Amino acid sequence: MRHKEFWIALGVGAAIGGVAALLYAPQTGTATRKKLKRGLEDLGDTLEDAGEYLKEQAERLGKEAQKLIDASKDQFDDAIDAATGAASGVVKSANRAARSVSKLV
């Protein structure tokens, strides 16, 4: 029973609100429709501008990300070269030490 009363009260409140809105409207319906139409057109223009801006920013971020990836690859290659050089130095030192030990034996 409470659900039925709720829906009745909601309907009556909506009807009273609609009548009050019509009675207290500051301008005619034609003027209101024109104003709404202008507002929607402005919103559409704003959304188009926002879409273009987002597209430009996405492209810019993509280019910046690619630059970072390339720089990271270069640094990684440099690190590999340095590690390879250090490893070959260790191998040479180990070979010299082994030769020295074999001469002593």
How would you sum up this structure, described in words?
There is one protein chain. By secondary structure, the protein is mostly helical. The chain has one domain (25-104). 93% of the residues lie in helices and 0% in strands. The chain is elongated and about 115 Å long. The chain starts with a helix and ends with a helix.
Mean pLDDT: 87
Order of helices and strands: HH
Helix content: over 70%
Q: Structural class, from helix and strand content?
A: mainly alpha
Q: What number of domains?
A: 1
Multimer state:
single chain
- Uncertain spans: none
Secondary structure layout:
Elements: H1 2-23, H2 29-104
Descriptive key words:
mainly alpha, elongated, 2 helices, 105 residues
Brief summary:
By secondary structure, the protein is mainly alpha-helical.
